[in-house]
C-alpha cells in the first residue's frame, strides 16, 4: 500500500535559521507520525524547494496526498501561490490530492490556540493575525475563531488584524474593560511584522504580548492531530 504524502508548505524566510527550523520541524513530524506517511517540506518563496518545484515532481506524489499550508488565513499566498499552483497541475496530479484550508478555518486549530493560552487561563485575549484586503473569508475565519474561544472556553476574546484599520479601537476597548489582557500574535517567529506590532502594543500598558508561533511541540501535535482526523475520515 502506498504511503500517504504530506506536503507541508511554509512561506519561507530570508533568515536561514528560520528555514532550517522549519525543515527540522518536518523531520520531527516524520519521526513522530504513527501512520507511516512521507513528509515533504517546501516553501512559497525565499527558499527551495518551492511548492511549484514539488508539483513539477508530481510523478513521485502517489497514494493520498495532503497539501498542508502553514498559513493562518486566506489571502494572496493561499489563493494564488498555493491553491493556484496546485490548480495549474490539476489535470496531471494525483486525484487523491487534498488541499487543506488555512489554519484558522480548521476546527482543530482551536485546540492549538487553547494550548498556547494555557498559562494565562481564563484571561481576556486578543488573537492578532495578518488580514486580507482581498478575501473577506480571512476576516470571517479569525472572528469565528475568537467566537468559538469565547463560547466554548468562557474566555473574553476578540480579533485584531496586524495591519489596517481597527487596531486602536480594539486595544482601547480592552484597555477600558480589563485591568490586564493578552495578545496572541499569529505570526511565525519574531520577524518584521511581529516587531512592528510589538512597537504599537507598547502604547497600551495593560496589554501583554505573548510569543509568536514557533515550530515547536505544540504545533507538531496539532499537525499530527489534523492528519489523524483526515485518515479517520477516509476510513469511514
Automatic annotation (TrEMBL):
Keyword annotations: Lyase, Metal-binding
Lineage: Bacteria, Bacillati, Bacillota, Bacilli, Bacillales
This protein's record includes keyword Lyase: yes
Protein name per Swiss-Prot or TrEMBL: Sirohydrochlorin ferrochelatase
Highest taxon of the lineage: Bacteria
Matches recorded under Gene3D superfamilies: 3.40.50.1400
Listed GO MF terms: lyase activity; metal ion binding
Pfam family, any one: CbiX
Amino acid at each position: 500500500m502506498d504511503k500517504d504524502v504530506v506536503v507541508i508548505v511554509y512561506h519561507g524566510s530570508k533568515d536561514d535559521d528560520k528555514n532550517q527550523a522549519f525543515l527540522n520541524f518536518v523531520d520531527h513530524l516524520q519521526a513522530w507520525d504513527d501512520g507511516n506517511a512521507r513528509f515533504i517540506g517546501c516553501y512559497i518563496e525565499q527558499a527551495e524547494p518551492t511548492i511549484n518545484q514539488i508539483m513539477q515532481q508530481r510523478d513521485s506524489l502517489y497514494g493520498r496526498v495532503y497539501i498542508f499550508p502553514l498559513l493562518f488565513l486566506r489571502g494572496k499566498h493561499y489563493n494564488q501561490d498555493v491553491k493556484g499552483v496546485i490548480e495549474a497541475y490539476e489535470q496531471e496530479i494525483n486525484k487523491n490530492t487534498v488541499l487543506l484550508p488555512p489554519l484558522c478555518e480548521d476546527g482543530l486549530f482551536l485546540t492549538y490556540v487553547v494550548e498556547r493560552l494555557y498559562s494565562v487561563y481564563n484571561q481576556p485575549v486578543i488573537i492578532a493575525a495578518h488580514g486580507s484586503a482581498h478575501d473577506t473569508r480571512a476576516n470571517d475565519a479569525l472572528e469565528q475563531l475568537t467566537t468559538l474561544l469565547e463560547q466554548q472556553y468562557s474566555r473574553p476574546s476578540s480579533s485584531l488584524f496586524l495591519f489596517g484599520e481597527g487596531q486602536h479601537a480594539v486595544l482601547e476597548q480592552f484597555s477600558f474593560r480589563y485591568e490586564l489582557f493578552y495578545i496572541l500574535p499569529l505570526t511565525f517567529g519574531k520577524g518584521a511584522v511581529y516587531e512592528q506590532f510589538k512597537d504599537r502594543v507598547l502604547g497600551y500598558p495593560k496589554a501583554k504580548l505573548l510569543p509568536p508561533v514557533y515550530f515547536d511541540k505544540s504545533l507538531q501535535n496539532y499537525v499530527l492531530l489534523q492528519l489523524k482526523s483526515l485518515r479517520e475520515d477516509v476510513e469511514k
